Amino acid sequence: MKSLLHSNPLKIAGVCIGLFLLLYLSYFSLIFGVIDTSWQTAIDAYTHFNGSNEHIVIKEVRVPRVLNALAVGASLGIAGALLQSLTRNPVADVELFGLNAGAALFVVFAVTFVGISSLTAFTWISFLGAAASGLVVYLLGSLGRDGLTPVKLTLAGAAITALAASARHGMLVLNEKALDEVLFWLSGSVGGRKLEFLQAVFPYMAVAWVGAFLLARPIQTLLMGDDVAKGLGQRTLLVKIMTGVVIVLLSGASVAVAGPIGFVGLVTPHLARYLVGVDTRWVFLYSGILGSAILLAADIAARFIAKPAEVPIGAMTALVGIPFFIYVARKGLEKK
Amino acid sequence: MKSYLSLRNKKGSFSFHIHKKSLLCAAVCLLLTAAVMVVSLGMGEMNISPLNVVKAFLGMGEEQDALIVTQFRLPRVVIGLLVGAALGAAGAILQGIVRNPLAAPDILGVTGGAAVAAVAFLLYFESVSIQWLPPVAFLGATLTTLILYALAWKKGVTPLRLVLIGVGIKIAASAVITVLILFSPFVLQNKATLWLTGSIYGVDWNDVKMIGPWVVGLIALAALLARRVNVQQLGDEVATSVGSLVQFDRFALLLICAALTGAAVSVGGEISFVALLAPHIAKMLVGPSFGGALPVSALIGSLILLIADLIARTAFSPIDIPVGVFTSAVGAPFFIFLLYKNRNR
């Protein structure tokens, strides 16, 4: 299949357009909301801060929100692309994989029984949860003669999600105080999170982004099949483990900042492949940009649909992502 | 020894085979269920010995015991019985027609669809009588089944596509519920969330009256169609060639399954995995013939739900844990085991 942007100059131009789109969406997200402000006010909030409501809103609410959406969106997009490459599975996503549910379970467990409430601990615990559930789902999904198949993977993800959810419900019923602390986090949102959350996990995200691009070449080789990759002298196991670590870093960091948000990572790699073809480096780059754009757009929509209330962004992305998932499930599985 | 009892009249206009082993299993399950019911009726804030429970039933016990047993605890136990039976039967029917051991109304999103309709009803039609909840939940379950079937249809429905798309529909349903709850008045939000966790807490005789006739009638109807399910299990070609209306039967059975799910959801909310577990246990006990598997599966469904509810009610007393938490704690590992067992299919 010939991709839409088939030459390098076109792809670079595409990146520029994508960045411009991100800038535009960020501007929109920054200025409009329950309190409409202007570009001038936004700049003044930093240069001539006067303590007015608008300025506080911009500094404390809007800017963190935009930055969260950008970072989390890019991470989810890249994580989705990596997952789909690693599992050679068109319907892989952090939500379907049970990573979100695992992270949520671990966080609730920590709050309920260990009484942890510090930011860094939160981050590490959600990493751990994402890693544990990801590993279990991956192992369950690859049982059997024909290895990893989309159906087994999806079912394993569904089972682990159900198990984690029931354990989580049980703990929350036993401990109502934890419910208050965690419920907000569980609904998934890029708003209402202070910038410190992002600051705490951003180093991991950045490392993972760089890692993803360094891994792009080996993954490209791996996509030709394990045998071919081995024949070319690649240490496939090492590449797979490294990819797994990067995925866990990305999804764990995203969950720590924004709570469980699904389906961004499902949609972006498909769009990216449609735009730039199969070259993994471009696919990862485009997945990141598209992920940011989708999450920003979803966040803006979540704010306006039910104004002045807000739709949880996780529900928004799920509602948009599910039709896409069904489309891929109908279209993409015959080849398998 | 013959494994079937044959009931026939002389003219031969009436003939009915009964599988002896199924009959025995059903009888044992019935006894077990009755025993669990008696124990469950006796346990709680005030413990009453099983003997006194039976006495209270027969009208020979103390007045206080009788009040507690028949007015406070019996409705909950009867609801557990009915909801469990409905889920068990629905699961058996669905597995029969989908011919996939992993199919269950909750995994395929049918339960989720019923829950969407029920939550919408609870939140937006507050003034309408609650008696309408089962039909509404049924409507939701049916619509979801139809959508699922249509989306999975591509020159026929394969189990693989059905399951994948079912999982998608399930997630979509929970997103819709989140949004519905968000757009509703605050007072009603709690009611809806509590109901959603899958609990038979705080039911009374009205609920029994509401879903009792549905569940009993539908299971009887399914039992009458047992032969058609058996034929379906042979595969579409064979079923067609022996003269079965495959598509019509499948549709009718799916409707019954949706109706049973709707009835269960309308009172119990989303109670997961009972519909998956029960038919498997039933088939292990009595084999795949639907005539035997249906009643045993329904009874086992009741048994699972009653035991789970008993534990949920008493283990962390005085906190009443939603029964759905327990059924998935048992059901999800079993599901994983099934995945493992079917890994080479």
UniProtKB/TrEMBL annotation, chain B:
This is Iron ABC transporter permease. It comes from the Bacteria. Its main location: membrane. Keywords: Cell membrane, Membrane, Transmembrane, Transmembrane helix, Transport. It comes from Brevibacillus aydinogluensis. It is found in: Cell membrane. One of its GO terms (biological process) is siderophore-iron import into cell. Belongs to the binding-protein-dependent transport system permease family. FecCD subfamily. The chain crosses the membrane at residues 77-98, 107-125, 131-151, 163-188, 251-278, 290-312, 319-340. Pfam families: FecCD. One of its GO terms (molecular function) is transmembrane transporter activity. It is a multi-pass membrane protein. The keyword Cell membrane applies. GO terms for cellular component: plasma membrane. PANTHER family: FERRIC ENTEROBACTIN TRANSPORT SYSTEM PERMEASE PROTEIN, FERRIC ENTEROBACTIN TRANSPORT SYSTEM PERMEASE PROTEIN FEPG.
